[in-house]
Amino acid sequence: MKTLEGPPTELEEISLKNKANFLTKQIPPPIFARHETFHPRFGWLKKGFDKIIEDEAIFLSPDAPVLLGVGKNMVQAIRFWCTAFKVVDEHQNKGEKARKGKPSQFGKRLLDDTGWDPYLENTNSLWLLHWHLLKQPCTATAWYFFFNYFHQHDFTVNEFSDGLIDFKKINYPNSKIVDESLHKDVSCLLRMYVSHSELKQPAEESLDCPFTNLNLIQIDETKRFRFNTGEKSNLSPEILVSACLDFASMESDQPGTISITRLLYDIGSPGLAFKISESFICAAIENIVTRNSDITFSETAGLIQLGFKRRPSDLKELILNSFYKKNR
Predict the structure, then answer these.
(1) Which residues sit opposite 299 in a β-bridge?
(2) What would the pLDDT profile of 303-314 be if each residue is shown by its tens digit?
(3) Least C-beta-crowded within 10 Å: which of 74, 131, 287, 309?
């Protein structure tokens, strides 16, 4: 199968414009700095998920710090990350001001004691969570901007901050969010994906986050950061293709096709979320095609497409169930 590296060709650009979908126009709500400066730590998602099963108002309880075994600010951070990663859904009962929580369907599949990977021992589960963090509706606006709209391959902290501030001014001109909140998001995001040893921060100030294992962002000796694009040795074909099917289902959950160009370059796409090359995504799809007759891979007039003979949401679930059953 022929693959092409680099940006879309003129033909692919025309195809993109003709098949533009609502995702390319969606901007997440202006939600900044609700993590209380804490990036997600080992065990937080499982802890928050388990406790919300016991009490849907756990995060609102004055005893929450004791029940969760963390400080008051960390309670709010756990709440934010559980909802941002979509393992907990929040709802507001009629006549009540406070929003309570309940386990999401995705949360149950992943983190239930009999779920796919309740203790996140498989690095692929972190890739899956990273995808769910960024997929719409996304409540981590700075993360959505960074992976979808920030196009500098290498950058400084200030360049990232300036880009986020401009993004806020353009898309949320009436927002009263102060720049300091955006700076907190920038710091939190970088600490989430870059280990504190590379950042040269004291260990007591920045405990490593499990998502550093994804190696999505690197830093050099001049303190410039860069996206690690291309192959991802710890990202399985099943997780990547499931994200592709998930992305396709957001526009139309019916049998059909979607171009590799859109999977790589559309706003909200797996290509932007995972920072991968065309050859990598094509190899992943070809791997799954050999084991699933409902997935196809074709090239017509230079346009390479992923095809699905069944509803993409159903195929996504089948692929994930099979992957985790095989890797228990």
Answers:
(1) 304
(2) 999 999 999 999
(3) 309
